[in-house]
Amino acid sequence: MTETPSPRSDARSGPWFTDDTGTVHLVYKACLKCGRQTFPPQPYGCLECGAYDADVFVDRHAEATGTLAAQVTVHLHPDQPTPFRIAEIDVRGTSLCVQAPLASEEGLDVGDRVHAVVLDNATLAFAAPQEGRS
Ligand SMILES: [Zn+2]
Question: Which of 60, 65, 125 is nearest to 92 (CA)?
């Protein structure tokens, strides 16, 4: 968890940004009153305690890496080609559990480390770490 100096999410893609090294960071809200963390961020206040003041309900960002907690394969969808996989990712260093597509069909199991990638269509997805990264 890192305090956000001035993160900018790309309004075209979603609440994340890519730094100069190509690492994807998630932008989320953290409540300093009760500790709840929320992704995607929303402006209405803490879902746990209702705090909404800007000095209590604050922006944070975290490197979009974590552990695959669960996954499902979607075989029917009205708008997208199937099959595709959706996963829950426990984001490292936070209490966030993020739902996002998996970037590939193969080789990931619950407990595996994953990191975020931004696909060509500006969709955030998770994939196995590249060689040499953790
Ligand atoms: Zn709260």
Answer: 65
